[in-house]
Amino acid sequence: MSQLPWKPIRVRNIEQQIDQAFDDLLHGQWGICGPSGGWQPEIDIYETPDSYFVEADIPGVPTDEIHIEVTPHTLIISGWRQSGCVEKSAQGVCIERRKGSFFRRFPLEHAVDPHRVERENKAGTLTLRIPKQKLKSQP
User: Fold this and answer.
1) pLDDT 10s digits, 55-97
2) Domains along the sequence of the chain with CATH
3) Where would I find the SHSP domain in this sequence (predicted)?
4) In this structure, what is the dihedral angle of CA atoms 90, 31, 21, 61, given to the nearest 10 degrees?
5) What span, in angstroms and rounded, lies between the C-alpha atoms of 115 and 70?
């Protein structure tokens, strides 16, 4: 009888595998972005002492279809991407790009000024600059 080598269970590895399984479930083919056609753009948020900077990959979405909502402690980016095929009789051979609505919500640790948000949509990348609220100096 041959014996298999003993491999102790590593808790850290199991935690990573569980995290990956949930990530695959939420963002994979059958999760939130699944057959319903919805999708989630990839978004990076950077922080400086006076602002948050946001970069969102939103190719194929017209600027007027991107909705930005900023409250003192929350950023919401939502919108809609339509199908790119203009020929009604065309049949899909390989369909990889996701279409439909998207919705992303991010809590912001520091209060921001929702009235001074700067935005630019260039080459499929949405860029935001969200200034933080100025702290009132104490006497």
Assistant:
1) 999 998 889 999 999 999 999 999 998 876 667 787 778 877 7
2) 36-83+99-139 (2.60.40.790)
3) 34-139
4) 70
5) 8
